[in-house]
Amino acid sequence: MAEKTNRISFQGEPGANSDTACRNVYPTMEPLPCPTFEDAFNAVETGKADLAMIPIENTIAGRVADIHHLLPESKLHIVGEYFLPIHFQLMVLPGVQRSEIKTVHSHIHALGQCRKYIRKNGWKPMVAGDTAGAAKLVSETQNRTMAALAPRLAADLYGLDMLEENVEDTDNNVTRFVVLSKTKQWAEQKAGVPMVTTFVFRVRNVPAALYKAMGGFATNGVNMTKLESYQLGAFTATQFYADVEGHPDDQSVKNALEELRFFSREVRILGVYPANEFRATQDADA
Questions:
Q1: How many other CB atoms are found less than 10 A from the CB of residue 193?
Q2: What is the pLDDT of residue 204?
Q3: Would you call 240 helix, strand, or coil by DSSP?
Q4: What single DSSP character describes residue 155?
Q5: pTM (2 d.p.)
Q6: Residues with active-site annotation
Q7: What's the rounded mean pLDDT across residues 149-166?
Q8: In the predicted model, what is the mean pLDDT of residues 232-253?
Q9: Which residues, 6+ apart, have CB-to-CB distance to 274 below 8 Å?
Q10: Could you give the C-alpha distances from 21 to 71, 91, 221, in angstroms and in order?
Q11: Beta-strand pair 103-106/124-127
Q12: Where are the beta strands (DSSP E) in the chain?
């Protein structure tokens, strides 16, 4: 058995939102920054990290497209989920005044989520590789006309001042992360504990195959909270990604999955894990 590293990998520079998610959920583990999502996956596959914290979707920007391709191919397993409210802070070099700012640097999605704020102040938006990377760039460049939009953690790590906090245009910006492990760890079925089962599947090439494959979830009363499709190869095959409420050992979920398999060429369960408490707060507000 491989020796534990007590590290959790993520994509981005130290101080990124993924870094914050790692520290919030696993405060005793060492966050391991990786240049790309593929590198973060590979760190777990090769034993450099025990877990990976990977963003899978955002309420504003939508799904993180790369993950839906990497996850089924990686053979890693989802063992948990986490929802992080996203906030952006305006950061500058120590002592810089607001009037000195000419350009604002951040990830393209962050710039889009702060578009009104940037336009109101008359600054020029500049795309960076990621939010924390923008803060690092401002720190290293030492240009007093540059500012960054980044998570709060980045200001501490790169010695920047925060001129203004929570400058995003909307307050419903939330990113959902999944926790990945090399070891299959289906959570135990427990009374009163909401569960999520995530899987990918490809339907058979027959008329109304998707309709028939999904029918079992409706007839068995299983709530599907997510269903997305994406192309494999040169638009010749479609794979579907789905989240459902419940555990595969629940009779209703078991029946629905059996019907799904009957109409599918391939079904693979990616993970069975407890639903994050954030889901319950969203249901209550609905």
A1: 11
A2: 82
A3: strand
A4: H
A5: 0.89
A6: 175, 177
A7: 97
A8: 86
A9: 80, 187, 193, 194, 195, 196
A10: 19, 20, 33
A11: parallel
A12: 7-11, 30-34, 51-58, 62-63, 77-85, 89-92, 103-106, 124-127, 146-150, 161-164, 174-181, 195-203, 224-232, 237-245, 264-274
